[in-house]
Description:
Helix content: 25-40%
Number of strands: 5
Strand order of the largest sheet: 1-5-4-3-2
CATH topology: YaeB-like fold
Order of helices and strands: EHHEHEEEH
Strand content: 25-35%
Radius of gyration: 16 Å
Largest sheet: 5 strands, mixed
Amino acid sequence: MKKRKVTVKLLDDASDEYKKLNEIVKEEKTKGIINSPHQTLLKGINDKIDLLKMNCEAGTQIKKKQIPKKYLEEYEVTNLWKINLPSYWRMIYTLKQPLREATEINVLSIWLDVLDIIDHGKYDKIFKYKRK
Length: 132
């Protein structure tokens, strides 16, 4: 069995959202707040990142015809996945598999780029889902 090395990168909006969330949680903890929706969401993101490092296909693959124009144009994705987070948030990601180098004969490297960390409302808007 080949070892798999997975690198997770949070890009653009996802990185900004993650940094903002970390700052909020840090501030809450200095105030003695030990449980909040922000802390739950941050823990959920970190847990899902760990899960994706073990199984990069743990999320739900989005059909090619349903990939929003935003991701096709901004990131030139050929595949798109989502994974659910606490409080109806979503993490949107794509898988990139680089060419193997001779020094990595036994290692399959996969880059997993997180494109967005968004709430359910924004998710529905981007994917053009209508509320019933």
